[in-house]
Amino acid sequence: MKIGVVGLPNVGKSTLFNAITEAGAESANYPFCTIEPNVGIVDVPDYRLEVLGKMYNTQKITPASIEFVDIAGLVAGASHGEGLGNKFLSHIREVDAIVHVVRCFDNENIIHVNGSVSPLRDIEIINLELALADLEQVSKKLEKDEKLIKTGDKSLIQSVELMQKIKDALENNKPARSVEVDEDEEKILKSFQLLTSKPVIYVANIGENDLNKEDNKYVTEVKNFAEKDHSKCITLCAKIEEEITSLPADERDLYKEELGIKTSGLEKLVIASYDILGLMSYLTAGEKEVRAWTIKKGTKAPQAAGKIHSDFEKGFIKAEIVSFKDLVDAGSFLKAKEKGKVRMEGKDYVICDGDVVLFRFNV
Questions:
Q1: pLDDT of 269 above 70
Q2: 251, 222 Cβ separation under 8 angstroms
Q3: Whole-angstrom Cα distance, residue 105 to residue 354?
Q4: How far apart are CA 19 and CA 242, in angstroms?
C-alpha cells in the first residue's frame, strides 16, 4: 500500500511525515523544502501480533507495512507547471490514496504561502489543480479515441462513454471518484490513473494549544467538506506527533497520557487508510513466524493464500481457520481445536479480519 502525503507548502506535511515514519525528512519555514519525494516504510501497529508471538513463542514477528511518500508542496497553477507542478502530479499518480494535510492553526511565525489561514481555500486550490490535470488528460484521450470508435470495438466504446462521464463530472467541479461505475468500468478507470479518482484522507493539522479543544472552526470546516466529498477526515497536531517520536520508545506512552492523546497520529492514519481502501488483515502464526497479511475485504481463501505465494493459490485445498478472539480465549491452537473453534473452509470462504489461518495446498 502506497500513501501520498500532499498539501500546500508550510502546512505541516513534512512534519507529519517525520512523525509517522521517523525518517528525518527536511522540514523548514519556506516553500518547496521537499523537492524529491521522501519515502518511509512504516509497520502497521497491530497488538494481535504480539499476543500471538507470546502464545507461539515465535522467532519472528512481521507486521503489515505501509509506504508513505512525502510529495512536494503544491501551488495554484501546478497543472500548468507552476512551482514543482508537473513533478508533483506525476508522483501522485503512483499512490493508492492521498493524505491531504490542511493547516488548521494560526501562527505568525510560520509563513502561509497564500498569506492567511483558510482551510477551504487551501483544499480548493489543490483539488482544482488535480481536476484540471485530469481534465486535460481525459480531453486528450477522448479526442484521440473518438476518432477510432468507428471500428466498432466494444471495449473502446465503453472507455469513451466512461471518459465522457468523467469529463462531465470534472467540468462540474466533481472528482472522478464521484462517478458511479460498475465492475468493468472500475477496471478501465484504474487504468487511467486519474488523480481525482484516488480516495482522500484530509488531515486537519491543529496547533499545540488546540490539542484537546472541540471548538476549532477550521477543523469543523474540513470535517464538513470531507463528509460532502465522501472522504475521511482525522485531526492531529503534527508538531506534537513529531515531538512524541523524538522521545525514547519507553517514554512515549507517558507523554501521550500527559497530553490526553489516546490514539497516535500513525494509528489514526492507518485506520483511515485501511477503511478508505477497503482493506483488512488476516494472520498466520507458528514458531518460526507470526505475520499479518493485508488483503481487500471480501477476498476468498484461495486469493488470500496467493498473497503468501502464488503456489498456495494454485494448489489450494482447504484453509484451517480460527478467529483471533476464539484462539486467545482458548489459550492455544490445540485447545481451540478441542473446543470446535477451528474450522476447515473451502474455496468460497471469505476471509474475515483477524482470522488466524493455516492453508492446506498441493503443488
A1: yes
A2: no
A3: 38
A4: 4
Inter-axis angle of helices 238-246 and 249-259, to 10 degrees? Answer: 140
Q: How far apart are CA 82 and CA 84, in angstroms?
A: 6
Distance of CA 183 to the CA centre of its chain: 21
87-135 residue pLDDT tens:
567 778 889 999 999 999 888 776 666 668 899 999 998 898 889 889 9
HSE-up (13 A, CA, CB side) for residue 288 = 1
C-alpha cell at 47: 497488538
CA distances to 104, 145, 154, 156, 191 from 151, in Å: 53, 10, 9, 9, 21
- Predicted TM-score (pTM) of the model is 0.85
Mean pLDDT of 156-180: 92
Model confidence band, residue 233 (pLDDT cutoffs 50, 70, 90): very high
- What is the C-alpha separation between 284 and 49, in angstroms, rounded? 9
DSSP string, 72-136: PPP-TTGGGT-TTHHHHHHHHTT-SEEEEEEE----TTS--TTSS--HHHHHHHHHHHHHHHHHH
Q: What is the C-alpha separation between 190 and 73, in angstroms, rounded?
A: 25
Q: Closest Cα partner for 2 from 41, 49, 50? A: 41
Mean pLDDT for the stretch of residues 178-184: 90
What are the CA-CA distances from residue 222 to residues 176, 202, 252 (Å)?
Answer: 20, 7, 29
Residue 149 pLDDT > 80: no
Q: Are 1 and 67 in contact (CB under 8 A)?
A: yes
* Predicted local distance difference test score (pLDDT) of residue 292: 97
Contact 287, 56 (CB under 8 A): yes
Tell how strand 38-43 and strand 65-70 pair up.
antiparallel
